[in-house]
What we know:
The chain is α/β, with parallel strands linked by helices. The chain has one domain (about 10-200): Rossmann fold. Helix content is about 35%, strand content about 25%. It contains 6 helices and 9 strands; from the N terminus they run H-E-H-E-H-E-E-H-E-E-H-E-H-E-E. The chain has helices at about 10-25, 40-50, 70-75, 110-125, 145-160, 170-175; strands spanning about 30-35, 55-60, 85, 100-105, 130-135, 140, 165, 180-190, 190-200. A 7-stranded mixed β-sheet has the order 3-2-1-4-5-9-8, sandwiched between helices. It starts with 8 loop residues before the first helix and ends in a 6-residue tail after the last strand. It binds S-adenosylmethionine. S-adenosylmethionine binds near residues 38 and 60.
Amino acid sequence: MQTDKPFSQACENNKAPILEQLSGFFTQPGTILEIGTGTGQHAVHFASHLPHLTWQPSDHPQNDQLCMPWLDEARLPNINPPLPLDVITGDWAHLPAISGVFSANTAHIMAWEEVEAMFRGISNALPVNGIFCLYGPFSYGGRHTSPSNERFNRSLRAQAPHMGIRAIEDLRRLGESTGLVLERDVDLPANNRLLVWLLTRPSGQ
Ligand SMILES: C[S@@+](CC[C@H](N)C(=O)[O-])C[C@H]1O[C@@H](n2cnc3c(N)ncnc32)[C@H](O)[C@@H]1O
C-alpha cells in the first residue's frame, strides 16, 4: 500500500536520471551519507540499484524518521537506519566513516548559514578525493534557468526569506573555501542540475 508512506512525485520523476549519474560517480564500495533524506524514496531506489554501496540516510531531527515506512518496506541489507543530523548543530563526528555524500533539494530549503555548515561538515567528513553530489535547481550569472525556477524562487522567498535557489557562483566560492572543487555540473530534466564536488585537500588546509 502506498497510502501510509510519505510520497513525493518529484522523487519518482527524478530518481532514474539521478541514479544514472550516481552510478558513474559512486563506483567504489563505500558508505554514502545522504543529507536531508526526506521521504526515503531516493534512498531505497539508489541503494537497491547500487548494491556495492551502503546507504546512510540522515535528516534534520524533526524529519529523520520520515523515511522509515519506505525503508521498512524495502528491507534492503545495504541501508543503515536513518541518523538525525542537523547540518548546523549536528554531531558530524559521530557519523560512520563515509566515502561520499548525496543531497537532493536541500540547498534552497536551508538558510545560507546552513548551506555553509553543510559544506564545512562534508569537507571534514569526506576523505580526500571523496565526492559530494548535490541535486537541485541553481541560478547562473544572476539568472534562473527557466521561468518555472524563477516562480519557484519567488514562492520560496515568500514562504520564508531565508530560503531560495542558490547561485552557482556563491556555491563555487563556498566550495573553494572548504576544499570542494566543482568537477561536473550535469544538466538533468525539469531544469535541475547535479553538482559534483571533489574534496581536493584535507579539511582545514
Ligand atoms: C525539500 S526536502 C528534500 C527531501 C528529499 N531529499 C527530496 O529530494 O525529496 C528538504 C530536506 O532538507 C532537510 N533539511 C532542512 N534543513 C536541514 C538542516 N539544517 N539539516 C539537515 N537537513 C535539513 C529537511 O528536513 C528536508 O528533508
